[in-house]
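Title: Request for sanity check on Redox-sensitive transcriptional activator SoxR prediction

Description:
We are preparing a figure and want to confirm that the structure record we downloaded matches what your pipeline produces today. Could someone re-run it with the sequence below and paste the raw structure tokens into this thread? We only need the token string, no images.
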Amino acid sequence: MSSKDLLPIGQIAARAGVPVSTVRYYETLGLIPALRSSGNVRLFPRHVLRRIALIQVSVRYGISLAEVAVILKDLPDSRPPSRAEWGTISATWGEHLARQQAVLERMQAELTGCIGCGCLSQTRCAVVNSDDRLRTDGAGPRRVLDVPEAAGTE
């Protein structure tokens, strides 16, 4: 890799539109690779900009940094990901977003149903919880916690 393909942390941050501290944090988490100059200055391969963009978009869509790390660990640090590798990432994120969408749609339907009946009481609601049957499922928001997506991520 030639020195013209390496950028200092300030340039990476400016071009990625993130603070320098974010670039350092991503490096600390192992999400992006960095080299050190003889003067101990962090230098980043130019293709790190693509990784930072992927990380930023992923986080914006509710994908945790831990989940991003799982995907990025299988990618080479020495080059940008290939089209096939990006396709794999896209398919993985698509599945994740579809599960999230199903959870959100279920929550919206339940909220609409509860607000629509007017009683707003989980203990007395004849529609959602007749005879307080949900108490046997355990404490807390069981109807939301027992969503299949939550079980699939553990």
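Thanks, this matches our download. Helices lie at 9-16, 20-28, 48-60, 65-72, 83-117, 142-145, 148-152.
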